[in-house]
Amino acid sequence: MLAQGPIMLSIDILVNALVTGILLGSVYAALALGLAITFGILHIPNIAHPTLVIAGAFFVYTLAQWGVDPILAALVGLVPFYLLGVALYLFYSRLFERRGGANVLQSLTLFFGLSLVIEILLALSFGSELKSVNVFYIGSSLRLGILTIPYRLLIPALLAPVMIGAVWLYLSRTNTGTAIRAVAHEERALSIAGLNPASIKRHAFGIATATAVVAGAALIMVGPIEPFSGRFQIGRVFAIVVLAGMGSIPGSLVIAIVIGISEALVSSYLNPSWSPGVAFAILLLGLALRPQGLFGAAR
Amino acid sequence: MNRLIIDNLSAGYGAVSVLRNVSLELNEGEMVALLGMNGNGKSTLLNCVLGFVRASAGRILLEWNGKSRDLTRLQPHEIVRLGLSIVPEGRRLVPNISVEDNLKLAGSNPVVRDRMTQNLSYCFDTFPLLLERRRQIASTMSGGQQQLLAIARSLMTLPKIVVIDEPSVGLAPIVVRDVLAAIEHLRAKSGMTILMAEQSFFQAIDVSSRAYILAHGSIQREFRRSEGEIAHEDIRKAMLGGVIQH
């Protein structure tokens, strides 16, 4: 009888950690989706993506102040963020691609700078305090036996696979999707097809940026954010995209969930301060076993 | 008369000039060979026609249905939409997608996408091998099969003129025969206008009505198939850039 208490407690912790991990992983996958397109498919190291997600979160926050539901706000933000992505791509390609291509270091520097500019603009407009959204479902939890799932985690976690599924269907089932997947592999194949590679890339970058506003909505529902919150996500999202295998979007969902579960287990059983390192530990291990990424095609 | 005119074209890469004052003509329904040894400018000329290499001087005129367009300032995808297509050196297929997706990609530009289904079945009719392998990933096929796919793909954009860059390069001799047979079959079936660059001139002249010899970046000689039989020595000399006797 005496021994049962701690065992029950640890099963309780384990189950909750697993479920929280799955849900958190799903949100990470939403954050990584844009990068899976820009970096994984187009090979543009868009280090500013997590900051764009934060910008998306602030967009959602602003509309939420007017009483708009965060998910609805994210849908409203799709077109403006698509256009923002198109503008960013034009800026990037003007600077680099027309002069015969950018090297990775130059692109990284550009997107790092862009990321700083966006962060500072956000800090100037919104201040640097933590911001959150208040919706009726955010304070409460779903209880299933020993399991407690807060709605603020459940709803974003359900939103993410819907968005990822929609993007994946678009990329794998439409001709424009095929063109997007082809453009980094063989740009000339697009020209030969009578398609403009530059406009395909611009469109893809627009879609990637549009996903940032949905990811931003998910993130601000999970917890409060401030203009510099994106920095904590950079390592994790790159780890997800690289480990999934460049360009494998379903793979990135799986990896994000693996990372989410591992982080939840590490913070429950070891120490929460270890959890930021988990993604990299998994990345190093994964790449040692399969250098092309777990879901990437062998080359 | 429908035709493509290359008029005093010069081109190069940076400071290196590759083509000097090249002029040639391609009439509707003709198959013309562009012969020359490696490094004499054949690929540069074809890439210039498609807009992948910019001309430094001269014009490329597409005269079709009473309209005349200069192609030298257009981008490759615009040239393709006007009705030129290319089977490029190295094929340039998208390696990681299926045969069918490679064809569909080429058939998806706004000018031709309404006819995608017809174009796809035309390709599969013409090359039944591709129908059998339509779900196969392009890079897993043999070189000859990939070459057939590249040829089929060039048809998906509904071209008036197909430009083929060294279809035999890197292929085993027996496969070269198959590929050239496929090109000839295509020409016979569709009456397609074709400009084909080749190194192996005896094989090329068998399927062409005329040939130009390109050496050192300029046209050394033009001859018709009927002359091909009697002029071996001249052809050899011209291909090596030798003096032309009249």
Short key terms for the protein model shown above:
heterodimer, A: 299 residues, mainly alpha, two-stranded antiparallel ribbon, 73% helix, globular, B: 246 residues, alpha/beta, Rossmann fold, six-stranded mixed β-sheet, four-stranded antiparallel β-sheet, 10 helices
Rg of chain A (C-alpha, Å) = 20 Å
Terminal residue distance of chain A: 57 Å
C-alpha geometry of chain A:
globular
Q: How would you describe the shape of chain B?
A: globular
In what range is the share of β-strand residues of chain B? 25-35%
Task: State the secondary-structure class of chain B.
Answer: alpha/beta
- CATH topology title of chain B: Rossmann fold
Question: What is the SS-derived class of chain A?
Answer: mainly alpha
Instruction: Give the C-level CATH assignment of chain B.
Output: Alpha Beta
Protein model, in words:
The complex is a heterodimer of chains A (299) and B (246). With 299 residues, chain A is mainly α. Chain A has a domain of 204 residues. The N terminus of chain A is likely disordered. Chain B is of the alpha/beta class. Chain B has one domain: Rossmann fold (3-Layer(aba) Sandwich), CATH 3.40.50. Chain B has 10 helices and 10 strands. A 6-stranded mixed sheet of chain B has the order 6-7-8-3-9-10, with helices on both faces. In chain B, strands 2-1-4-5 form a 4-stranded antiparallel sheet. In chain B, a hairpin with a 2-residue loop joins strand 4 and strand 5. The longest helix of chain B is centred in the last third of the chain and has 18 residues. Classes of the chains: A mainly alpha (299), B alpha/beta (246). Chains A and B meet through helix 6 and helix 7 of A and helix 2 and helix 3 of B.
